[in-house]
């Protein structure tokens, strides 16, 4: 049975860092995508946060230029998955902003968390799906 | 080739004029010894030259030739030009040109014979790393060649002079030789290649690339041109990274990826891979660190499948990720400040 999931930025970031403690847990998500078993749903905020984290965490170790390069490739890899129909992207448009705003007021979530929750709510019950983000 | 040269030379030494046909690996070749001299027909001018070289060389080694030469010795020893010859081979070449059989040849054929003899001598010096001597011999060949209206032959001589100059690190002097050779013989792959090598030595890698491209276009199985193109692209990539021009470096990396795939089509993949492996061997520690970025770049760009690319990327990012920082913390830090 195909399974679709909404994922948050830290999940997608762990996908790209092999040494991350959670990598073994998230790796199967991508392997499923590769097999055509399921789809991942992400907010447009997710690739932005992942690329920002890559560049910010790598720059001290390998310098700005190299860090930018890795972030660029992560972005390209995400784009490739989107273009291949493996990732579905949800733009943060005006309608979605309204809904995310309502979630933030109702559930006292932070701004970015509300935007992710809105995508989750669109597909599922976000209260259980948000657990993916916090591991 | 050697067998063909030997047979002809033996016949010539015995005073038998003959024509021998044979296969040269990529096509039919023919070498002829007549009263007019030694002529060769082969799929390319270079191959024909090689064929004549083998013929002349084998001719010199035969006892009959030695006898002929010793008969000419007495007179030749009085010749200061012969005495000044630095090697035995040079003496042989000079002697052969003075031999009565050669002297009896018509003017133009005698000239051709002299040119090829000097070239053969130059080649021998070149292969023994006696480059100034090789240059001298090639210049002598060119001097004779200029008396003939034979542009390809002029080009061959100029290319050889350039090569000998290059080996003496006289790159600025070598460059006009290759330019002139290419002008005289635009399909001269070897001269294009040599020009590329010389430009590379002068640090002009962009210009060198164009020369290697041209050499490959003219001769797709030219392993040296593939190798040097690979090397030039890596040098340019490294230069771009050193100067912070990541866009330029990426462009070179893409070119290298393309070169690898084109090389695979022409059966030259191993040559390009070798160029990549050997290039790293010659770098300093500092350069190696910079080259690592370029290497990651062209390896990443060479992978077409997005999942394979992801496997490569997560491994490389994992190697560089700061210890003790998890993805959860990295994102939390962004959201919570």
How is the secondary structure organized here?
The complex is a heterodimer of chains A (135) and B (337).
Chain A: E1 4-6, H1 9-15, H2 23-35, E2 39-43, H3 45-62, H4 64-83, E3 87-90, H5 94-107, H6 111-123, H7 126-129, H8 131-134
Parallel strand pairs in A: 1-2, 2-3
Chain B: H1 2-13, E1 18-23, E2 28-34, E3 37-41, H2 45-61, H3 63-76, H4 80-83, H5 88-98, H6 100-103, H7 107-127, H8 131-145, H9 151-167, H10 171-184, H11 189-201, H12 205-218, H13 223-242, H14 246-265, H15 269-281, H16 285-302, H17 306-320, H18 327-336
Antiparallel strand pairs in B: 1-2, 2-3
Helix pairs in contact in B: 1-2, 2-7, 3-5, 5-7, 7-8, 8-9, 9-10, 9-11, 10-11, 11-12, 11-13, 12-13, 13-14, 13-15, 13-16, 14-15, 14-16
What can you tell me about this protein's structure?
The complex is a heterodimer of chains A (135) and B (337). In chain A, strands 1-2-3 form a 3-stranded parallel β-sheet, sandwiched between helices. With 135 residues, chain A is mostly helical. Mean pLDDT of chain A is 84; it is low at 126-135. In chain A, helix 1 packs across helix 2 and helix 5 crosses helix 6. Helix content of chain A is 69%, strand content 9%. Chain A is globular. Chain B has 337 residues and is mainly alpha-helical. Chain B has 18 helices and 3 strands. Chain B has helices at residues 2-13, 45-61, 63-76, 80-83, 88-98, 100-103, 107-127, 131-145, 151-167, 171-184, 189-201, 205-218, 223-242, 246-265, 269-281, 285-302, 306-320, 327-336; strands at 18-23, 28-34, 37-41. In chain B, a hairpin with a 2-residue loop joins strand 2 and strand 3. The longest helix of chain B has 21 residues, at 107-127. The model of chain B is unreliable at 71-87 (pLDDT under 50). The chains are: A mainly alpha (135), B mainly alpha (337). At the A-B interface, helix 1, helix 2, helix 3 and helix 4 of A face helix 16, helix 17 and helix 18 of B.
